[in-house]
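Module 6 notes. Inverse folding takes a fixed backbone as the condition and produces residue identities as the prediction. Think of it as a translation problem where the source language is geometry and the target language is the twenty amino acids. Below is one complete input and output pair. Work through it position by position during the lab.
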């Protein structure tokens, strides 16, 4: 006889649902902004953010007691974004298949050049800049999310911002600390 896996149960609601809802409202914008820079596509970033928060909900009883549940969710988002990029690379190598796809609205026109420049950065530089400047995380928090040292975050951010400065899209006043 084959066993059927049960769907994960929602956390017991001893106030957990209200806390989770508040957490989602607070974290949605920085999470989506960061992931949009990483994957270069806002609708995909929103899907990844939703998946990250869904995973947090399933584990909310454990996640909510973490010192920084927001960093846990961002780490999950970055992992999902990395997996998404890998799938994109594999699909590009596969024979082309024709399919009708709806095009989602893109970024605001003023953001096109900046998003294009960010898209030309290596993934780790793009991730560091996204977490630091759009996700509004400190160097230490970014290092924790990326699983690297503070110095690596500083170097990646400085290198990425330097490339953006050379492209003329940001001024010399852009701060990389």
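Target side of the pair, the amino acids:
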């Amino acid at each position: 006889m084959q066993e059927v896996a049960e769907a994960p149960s929602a956390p017991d609601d001893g106030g957990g649902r209200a806390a989770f809802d508040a957490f989602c409202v607070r974290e949605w914008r920085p999470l989506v902004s960061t992931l949009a820079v990483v994957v270069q596509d806002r609708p995909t970033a929103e899907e990844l953010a939703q998946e990250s928060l869904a995973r947090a909900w399933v584990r909310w009883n454990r996640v909510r007691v973490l010192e920084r549940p927001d960093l846990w969710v961002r780490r999950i988002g970055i992992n999902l974004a990395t997996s998404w990029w890998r799938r994109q690379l594999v699909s590009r190598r596969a024979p082309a298949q024709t399919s009708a796809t709806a095009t989602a609205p893109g970024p605001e026109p003023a953001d096109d050049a900046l998003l294009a420049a960010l898209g030309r950065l290596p993934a780790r530089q793009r991730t560091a800049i996204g977490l630091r400047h759009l996700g509004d995380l400190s160097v230490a928090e970014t290092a924790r999310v990326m699983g690297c040292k503070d110095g690596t975050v500083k170097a990646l951010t400085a290198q990425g911002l330097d490339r953006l400065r050379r492209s003329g899209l940001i001024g010399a006043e852009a701060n990389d600390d």
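Reference fact for the lab report: The two ends are 59 Å apart (CA to CA).
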